[in-house]
Amino acid sequence: MTLNRRLFTTLAASALAFGLVAPAIAAELEDIESAGTVKIGMLVDFPPFGIQDSAGKPDGYDADVAKALADYLGVDAQIVPVTGPNRIPYLLSGQVDVLVASLGVTEERAQKVDFSDPYAGISIAVYGDASVEVTDAAGLSGQAIAVTRASTQDSGVTGVAPEGTEIRRFDDDATAVQALMSGQVKLIGASNIVMSQIGAATGDRFDKKFDLSSQVQGIAVSPGSDALLDKVNAFVEQAKTDGMLDGIHEKWLGEPLPDFVKTAQ
């Protein structure tokens, strides 16, 4: 990176930090290939997508995808920990070249960054005791179901629950899950992340009943990083086709890549 580019990166980062408007810094594929390293921003506090291993190094679904992307590009991966609030500013200011950071694809975000085809997703479903047969919303009548208050799960369950459903609202995921585990309720509205964690701890005691909603996640690059985005999309397509993403998803979430991610564009 030249002196002028380093200075521009610093000024842009400062402008973003203070809420000022600054032009995004496009990541050039040729520069990444020449440097032999791609800087990848990743959350490390969003299990199982982003965690830290026992040695304090980034791990999880996104870490495996990030490393595979770097291999596809033929360069080393430099994983840079980011947070939810600073991940897009880090990208736009050139502090990272790309984000593999559990970034849900929304219209608002798409005005700031360019998204790849989806590589992951978060779904919300009704989940619960395997002995309870509930296959659709009508089956919730007469059942008690736990949700986290004012969450996506809450709005999803509330929106479909028929008369006779008892919705029990808790302050956080942990207490809602505890209500399920302790038998206070037989059902819970939960994300696939929470479901994978419960399944890992309890085996086949619980299962998914039916889906409520879903949101895909994309790998993000700064606007103008066209060659890099093309390469990232080629990677995502190959990783879906050859089963790599299925394997990574199975490793971290206990099931293959969901169909709503595989078929989304």
Summarize the structure.
With about 260 residues, the protein is an alpha/beta fold.
What does the secondary structure layout of this molecule look like, with pairings?
Layout: H1 3-17, H2 29-35, E1 37-43, E2 51-52, E3 58-59, H3 61-73, E4 76-82, H4 87-92, E5 98-99, H5 107-110, E6 114-129, E7 144-148, H6 152-160, E8 166-170, H7 173-181, E9 187-191, H8 192-202, E10 206-221, H9 226-241, H10 244-253, H11 259-262
Label this structure with key terms.
265 residues, five-stranded mixed β-sheet, 11 helices, 2 domains, D-Maltodextrin-Binding Protein, domain 2, alpha/beta
Estimate the global geometry from the Cα principal axes. Answer: elongated
Radius of gyration: 20 Å
User: How are strands sequenced across the largest beta sheet?
Assistant: 8-7-9-6-10
- The number of distinct structural domains comes to 2
Architecture of the largest domain, CATH level 2?
Answer: 3-Layer(aba) Sandwich
Approximate strand percentage: 25-35%
CATH topology of the largest domain: D-Maltodextrin-Binding Protein, domain 2
Secondary structure category = alpha/beta
Question: How many beta-strand runs?
Answer: 10
* Mean pLDDT level: 91
Plain-language structure description:
- 39% of the residues lie in helices and 25% in strands.
- By secondary structure, the protein is an alpha/beta fold.
- The chain folds into two domains: 3-122 and 216-262, 3-Layer(aba) Sandwich (D-Maltodextrin-Binding Protein, domain 2), CATH 3.40.190; 123-214, Periplasmic binding protein-like II (D-Maltodextrin-Binding Protein, domain 2, 3-Layer(aba) Sandwich).
- It has a five-stranded mixed β-sheet with strand order 8-7-9-6-10, sandwiched between helices. It has a three-stranded parallel β-sheet with strand order 4-1-5. Strands 2-3 form a two-stranded antiparallel ribbon.
- Strand 7, helix 6 (152-160) and strand 8 form a beta-alpha-beta unit.
